[in-house]
């Protein structure tokens, strides 16, 4: 009887000393879901045609970029990249709606970041076209390179799969041309591909360069820019 009483007391003691603090749900990475993350973008929407610019001129309009505010952010950095010219501008703001005057009939990429305890919290990156007067069709967005990433070093292997993602506000992409090789700029390796992956042969000790040209049904095209990777 004394043994049973002792066991009951031990169980009560263990349960009573358990940490019952609610740190919030845990996700698959073992991180509380309430941990600070990048903001959610709202407008201009991803892969969209923006027709809501204010004070338009034949060449420019003012677009109001918007994202969901985050309680952990004292200020935000809005980055806007012109995908046609490569021009990148950054804007500091404590608000979550910010006007930027940008060129019309050109493609842009944007994202927002803020600093939390010395660490940058970065949103997703969204592409959009700023609508232009009289434009009936728009070129595809430059292909997003997924892998290999820029300047990646890959362990010795005989083949690598090039992986990218294409998008177009007109939804009329008809194919991709893949440029690949050890020279920069690379030469054409495959044309009019209907898929967004290509496995290529590689050899140890070489640096490879690759570029994706996205084409649509109206004869428009865009280039991803040249990326490189190295094989050990």
List the helices and strands and how they pair.
Blueprint: H1 2-17, E1 41-43, E2 48-50, E3 60-67, E4 76-82, E5 88-93, E6 97-103, E7 106-116, E8 119-122, E9 126-130, E10 144-147, E11 152-154, E12 159-165, E13 173-181, E14 188-193, E15 197-201, E16 207-216, E17 221-223, E18 227-231
Parallel strand pairs: 2-9, 11-18
Antiparallel strand pairs: 1-3, 3-6, 4-5, 4-7, 7-8, 7-9, 10-12, 12-15, 13-14, 13-16, 16-17, 16-18
Overall strand count: 18
- Using only C-alpha atoms, the radius of gyration works out to 25 Å
- Quaternary state reads single chain
Largest sheet: 6 strands, mixed
Overall mean pLDDT stands at 87
Q: What best-fitting shape do the alpha-carbon axes yield?
A: flat
Helix % is under 10%
**Gap between N and C termini:** 70 Å
User: Which parts are unreliable, with pLDDT below 50 for 5 consecutive residues or more?
Assistant: 1-34
What is the structural class? Answer: mainly beta
């Amino acid at each position: 009887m004394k043994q049973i009483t002792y066991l009951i007391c031990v169980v009560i003691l263990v349960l009573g000393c358990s940490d019952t603090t609610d740190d919030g749900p845990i996700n698959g990475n073992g991180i509380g879901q309430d941990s600070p993350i990048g903001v959610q973008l709202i407008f201009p929407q991803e892969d969209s045609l923006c027709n809501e610019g204010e004070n338009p001129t034949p060449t420019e309009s003012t677009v109001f970029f918007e994202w969901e505010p985050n309680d952990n952010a004292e200020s935000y950095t809005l980055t806007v990249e012109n995908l046609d010219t490569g021009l990148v501008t950054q804007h500091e703001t404590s608000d979550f709606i910010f006007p930027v005057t940008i060129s019309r009939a050109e493609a842009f990429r944007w994202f927002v970041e803020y600093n939390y305890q010395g660490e940058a919290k970065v949103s997703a990156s969204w592409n959009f076209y700023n609508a232009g007067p009289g434009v009936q069709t728009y070129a595809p967005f430059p292909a997003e390179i997924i892998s290999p990433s820029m300047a990646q070093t890959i362990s010795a292997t005989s083949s690598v799969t090039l992986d990218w993602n294409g998008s177009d506000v007109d939804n009329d992409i008809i194919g991709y041309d893949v440029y690949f090789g050890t020279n920069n700029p690379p030469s054409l390796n495959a044309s009019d591909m209907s898929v967004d992956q290509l496995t290529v042969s590689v050899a140890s000790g070489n640096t490879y360069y690759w570029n994706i040209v996205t084409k649509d049904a109206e004869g428009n095209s865009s280039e991803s820019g040249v990326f490189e990777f190295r094989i050990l």
